[in-house]
Specification:
By secondary structure, this protein is mainly α. The chain contains three helices and no strands. The protein has a domain at about 50-95. α1 packs antiparallel against α2 (about 50-70) and α2 (about 50-70) runs antiparallel to α3.
Length: about 100
């Protein structure tokens, strides 16, 4: 990459570059979490509890990573984990 021209707006140019990179990272992580949650809910409705438990572990990992990188708030990650765990435990009790 070419060297930045010195002047008044160099910090703005760098900040824009960083925000674009962070935006792509954030969108990707959020999309992955949403996709995994949809798969988990499908497993729950199809009564595939072993697969659902495996998917739950993967979701927990992704939520924790996203919260650690400040992509989502840590309380949001915690809330999602609690609600998904509750769904699985309710299905186990009914079976």
């Amino acid at each position: 990459m070419a060297k930045l021209k010195t002047g008044r707006h160099t910090s703005v140019i760098k900040a824009l570059r960083q925000s674009k990179k962070n935006h792509l990272r954030n969108v990707s992580a959020k999309s992955k979490i949403k996709t995994l949650i949809k798969k988990l809910e499908k497993n729950i409705t199809d009564k595939k509890l072993p697969e659902a438990k495996i998917a739950l572990k993967e979701i927990f990992s992704n939520l924790d990573k996203a919260a650690g990188k400040n992509i989502i708030h840590k309380n949001t990650a915690s809330r999602k984990k609690a609600r998904l765990s509750k769904k699985i435990s309710l299905k186990e009790k009914t079976n």
